[in-house]
Design brief:
By secondary structure, the protein is α+β, with helices and mostly antiparallel strands. It folds into 2 domains: about 45 residues, no CATH class; about 60 residues. Helices cover about 25% and strands about 20% of the residues. The protein has a 4-stranded mixed beta sheet, covered by helices on one side. The N and C termini lie far apart (about 80 Å).
């Protein structure tokens, strides 16, 4: 393969050491991601990826792609994930928690109904 033509002189231009064209430069942000992945792989750090999926009345927690548990609300699922992730973090794992944004009209948290006296009436 021939080196690229120089735009100014119509001649072939050699870069660097003179042994051929210089390879394209990879943006730093990509190199950082590649280096980070290589370091994690080299150290063999376990990674736990928790993903919450579901609808208004049925929420599942996936751990590394496998359904782990089901919950009645998104809030309960999140609290369960945080408890499990806390233990995994103590064990030295890298943790990723993915929670979808609330859809229009969806409540992010379940309504509490303890059947007792509301806290606001105790003041």
């Amino acid at each position: 393969m021939f080196p690229p033509l120089c735009a100014n002189h119509g001649k072939r231009q050699m870069h660097g050491t003179g042994h051929g064209p210089e390879p394209p430069r990879v943006p730093d942000r990509f190199m950082f991601a590649v280096q980070e992945e290589a370091m994690r792989t080299a150290r063999r750090i376990p990674q736990d990826i928790y993903r919450i999926r579901g609808n208004e009345t049925d929420w599942q927690v996936e751990l590394n792609g496998q359904i782990d548990r089901s919950y009645a609300s998104k809030q309960a699922a999140f609290e369960g994930v945080v408890a499990a992730a806390s233990k995994a973090l103590r064990d030295g794992h890298e943790i990723v928690i993915l929670v979808p944004a609330s859809r229009p009209g969806e409540r992010a948290f379940a309504e509490e109904d303890s059947g007792g006296i509301p806290w606001s009436s105790l003041t």
